[in-house]
Amino acid sequence: MRSILRPAVTTVGLFTLLLGLAAPLAMTGLANALFPAQAGGSLIAREGRVIGSALVGQGFSEARYFHPRPSAAGYDASAGAASQLGPSSARLLEAVRARVAGAGPAPVPADAATASGSGLDPHISPENARRQVARVAAARGMEEARLREILARHVEGPQLGLLGEPRVNVLALNLALDAGE
Amino acid sequence: MTLLGWAQIALTLALAALAAVPLGHYAAAIAEGRVRWLRPLEALLYRAGGIDPTAGQGWRGYVLAMLAVNLAGFLLLYALLRLQGALPLNPRGLPGLSPWLAFNTAVSFVTNTNWQAYSGEAAMSYLTQMAGLTVQNFLSAATGIALALAFCRALAAGGVARLGNFWADLTRVTLYLLLPLALLLGLALVACGVPQTLADYAEARTLEGGTQLIALGPAAFQVAIKQLGTNGGGFFGVNSAHPLENPNALSNLLQCWAILVIPFALCVTFGRLVGDARQGRALLAVMLGFVLAGTAAIYAAEAAGNPLHLAAGLDPAPGNMEGKEVRFGTALSALWAAATTGASSGSVNAMHDSFTPLGGMVPLFLIQLGEVLPGGVGSGLYGMLVFALLAVFIAGLMVGRTPEYLGKKVQAREIKLAMLAVLVLPAAILGLTAVSLVLPSATASLANAGPHGLSEMLYAYSSAAGNNGSAFGGLTADTPWFNTTLGLAMLLGRYAYLVPVMAIAGSLAAKPRAPEGAGTLPTHGPLFAGLLAGVILILGGLQFLPSLALGPLAEHFSLLAGKTF
Prior knowledge:
- The structure holds two protein chains of two kinds.
- The longest helix of chain A has 33 residues, at 2-34.
- Chain A is built from eight helices and five strands.
- Chain A has helices at 2-34, 36-39, 90-101, 110-113, 126-130, 133-140, 144-154, 170-178, and strands at residues 43-46, 49-53, 123-124, 155-156, 167-169.
- Chain A is mainly alpha-helical.
- The two termini of chain B are 28 Å apart.
- In chain B, helix 4 packs parallel to helix 18 (480-509).
- Chain B has a domain at 371-561.
- Helices cover 64% and strands 2% of the residues of chain B.
- By secondary structure, chain B is mainly α.
- In chain B, a hairpin with a 2-residue loop joins strand 3 and strand 4 (408-409).
- The model of chain B has no long low-confidence stretch (mean pLDDT 97).
- At the A-B interface, helix 1, strand 2, helix 3, helix 4 and strand 3 of A face helix 1, helix 2, helix 3, helix 6 and helix 7 of B.
């Protein structure tokens, strides 16, 4: 037995030092040297205060802001969560109906009436954003045409022309509005 | 379904299949001991353990060494999980885990399952993520690959008793294959936006004046090995749906590629080691075919959307978006679901529990087929080779000849052992699901009622026994019953499966390799690939059809009839 136990214990012990401490710490140092913003969570600061992460969705409910998707986590970025409701769930159908009722004329963009996988989805679909223009413009006393222009600049297409779906980062858009872009 | 969606699916699969060729040759060179660029580090590890890397082991010795490493890893991880509250690198001051959850989690990571009855950002300190979970992500993956290499050697050699040296295989696969790939991928993921920091969670003041606590941590390196090693355990609770774990379509491409590339590459390695590249290509073609078919089926179901929600007024164009992220949509969510369950990864970028009934049935079925399409790193290849032995056996029965595979006669002992291995999965999955369904304390954990509740339970035991790790996440799994029985299912799915498989390897190694004759069934052409696919579907899948009829199929037809639960 000793012929197996000693190599097993040393292998696990030394690999824990190498793979569990040395490698991740080296990676942390390298990442912070090469990509400091990303390694730190892509945090956005205004006047010396962190106001969010460029990659993480944030909750908005005031009329003057664009609203994100429904979230099972309430946009708590320390506890991401999905609804985990199945397709035949009566509760889910009820929730979808209530969101559709509050979202203007049908058909409603699917992302506006369904909760995301993470509960922290930073994006909405361009169509979802367009349907919010009238409300946001009225609340801000802005011309709708001008708001549409700003929105158009915030519609992201597929990465490298191929990857991913068209989308609008809600926090980035709302920040641009507050900055009086 | 859209053209752009299909283009992304095709690109990901093509990149994985193309990279598999050079990577497979490299892994073969590692298996033959020809890659030695970290020789001093390797020598240090051997010296410390008193290991002679040139000493060959028979199948029993090889398996015993493997079990010893896994046991030592389990004990260390269990201790870390229990004691993390008293250990450093714990900025949130998280306490140790309960014994039930610590047992379940330690078993889960040692068996390459990565079933998670906890949420990373709420339960695990940075030290536990790094020194506990990340280490087992490496070692469980290297364990699987080492076993697969030993199985290949058994088929390649004639009349030998030894399969190689487990300590050397484990060390070399870790140092030369997994570690460099994980460092490169980890850095690429940081560039995409995945955090890698030891700083505490960030407290943000939101635009509307509220506060948002943003969980951070040393995620990128762990995410890299979680995908490369088909482990699948998320750094954050919602796994690769989390915008910091998988920020955009490029990081999604890299991670989905990483899930598939090593299982695909090991087919090439197999072809190389047995001296006939066509043999590996045949296995790879079957794996690729199933992943593609699974993706198409899930994509079609999810893109069609939920009929009840469409009737309620949703725009049908985006498909079923409940539990999915806007940046991925239905195409990338479908591809990921097929890749993560075909390979036994278990990481997710969308919530399978909220897929349409048929869209959720396909991932479940891919797990139940035995995790060989392409399966976990290593475990997928040796599982596939077991099905290949069964395929030549069945073909032999049909034409009345002694079956042989790669010139090795396949006889009663091998087939008995193969059937023993293949029966472990249905026995564990169906047995434990049946028991749980009649226990009120277990059904109290279900989040959904009706047939979907049964699917939730069935998925949990399939995922555990298949060493997959994904979930219909509505199930509240952090209870003593589920922590214990799912832990048991993981142990059975890993060890009760691989011991008979390695016994087959030992038995095959001892046989001479006869030259091909006129009556030999070629095991590389489309005919054999079709036969193999049929055997996987019938032997691997048939016994699960009744349970699928009671769960997802029943739900599908209730949904069409407008019934909710």
